[in-house]
Amino acid sequence: MLLRFAVANFASIRDEQEFSAIAADRHDDLAVRPVPESNHMTLPCVGIFGPNASGKSNIVSALGFMKRAVTDSHQRWRPSDEIPRRPFLLDPHKSREPSKFEIEIVADGVRYEYGFLCESDKFTDEWLFAFPEGRPRRIFERKLGEPIHFGPTLHGQRKQIEKMVRPNSLYLSAAAANNHGQLKPVHDWFESNLRIATEGNFDGRLRETRHLLEKHGSKAILALLKYADLGADGVKFSDNKLAPEHAAKLAELISAIENTEVSPSQVSMGLEVEISHKHGGKEFTLPLDYESSGTKTWLGVTGPIISTLRTGSVLVIDELDARLHHHLAGQFVRLFQEERTNPNGAQLVFNTHDAALLGPDAVARLRRDQVWLTEKVGGATQLFPLAGFKVRSIENIEKRYLGGRYGALPFFDESLLAEVVSEIVA
Question: For the chain, what percent of residues have pLDDT higher than 70?
Fold first, then answer.
């Protein structure tokens, strides 16, 4: 369960920006879930809206960086590696300051607050607090140049692990690598319960779809494929295998780069995917490359959708509306909004340009506390909630948003078109 995420000095985000998945209103018709030891409820969906280049994708990138730092910094980053943060570069002073990442989650029924500060070569601060009875309880606090301060409830080989932590690795990452049982739920939340879908991990998402279809016999994958009304009736996966001698060499190279053992049987040149269609009583198959971009996109998210809904985890989507019809994007959101299809408390966080999701007739209309807006101010991303405006529940939020009532819209300078026209007619 994701409650809150905050980031500062990352990409286009200069000052600290935060979004929350805590409900501001009562929603008896949504798949909300109670926050342990509190009177709050979490929302099943949070959408981030704004114009191009306003920083929507950088919110997703920041979550992705935090996940990689937790899962990879101790075992996969080499001691000499720089921390791959992306500080705000438009302010020379800010670019030399630490970047901040902080998150509140619920793991194994306990609420946690975890965060860290990092520069390009070291983590300067790291902290973890638990709220087992609604009040903060320190698990550990780390500050550069000082011994780590441990809370009285943290046991095990905490001092031994502290000696293993490098300047460019996190204590939480090192603790998980050394099987520290008490910290495992928080690490596992990042590793298994936080799924991030971007253009760059499309192949990995296809493999997850294949795994569910072939290893678990998931009927839901085919059901979603047909439900999308894309004309697809089935899907078949196969590996493009290398010659044995080439596979062995490539496995050896990958093992050295990734610092983990990879066998030749795990190496392939990628997936071959065929989509079947029925027409005129006959079945035809087409390679995935021949399919529409919408079909490819939908196939790449069906696996993560089913896994997330099944496990009650968090799915973060960059550009939900990219290559999906807005009706299909609405059905995507609906799967998470409704208790019937989301009985395990899964959550969807996404960014989009699709204002139709805000309309009164949208199949899965977002409520005001589910909507966050981004815009650039002085070259820096500002993230703010729609709930901060006076919004009547009966008003047409889509119309007012597109009309500029809430900001977070692109500005088109008509005078610049004169230059375009002059070159076209020249």
Answer: 85
| Residue 363 near residue 337 (C-beta atoms within 8 A) | no
**CA–CA gap between residue 314 and residue 383 (Å, rounded):** 20
403 pLDDT band, cuts 50/70/90, is: low
What is the chain's alpha carbon radius of gyration, rounded to the nearest angstrom? Answer: 23
- The residue to which tokens 């062995």 are assigned: 248
| Whole-structure pTM value | 0.85
Q: Alpha-carbon distance 354 to 313, whole Å?
A: 24
User: Rounded distance, CA 298 to CA 221, Å?
Assistant: 10
Q: How far is CA 15 from the centre of its chain?
A: 21
- Cα separation values, 234 from 221, 288, 390, Å: 9, 12, 47
- The H-or-E segment that residue 128 falls in is strand 123-130
Q: Which of 271, 201, 154, 208 is nearest to 60 (CA)?
A: 201
Region of 367 on the Ramachandran plot (φ > 0 left; ψ -120 to 50 alpha; else beta) = beta
C-alpha 113/C-alpha 134 separation (Å) is 12
From the list 112, 245, 117, 120, the residue with the least C-alpha distance to 182 is 112
Q: Which two tokens stand for residue 186?
A: 């928080």
Dihedral angle, C-alpha 223, 224, 230, 233, nearest 10 °? -30
Return the top range by mean pLDDT from 123-127, 277-281, 397-401. 123-127
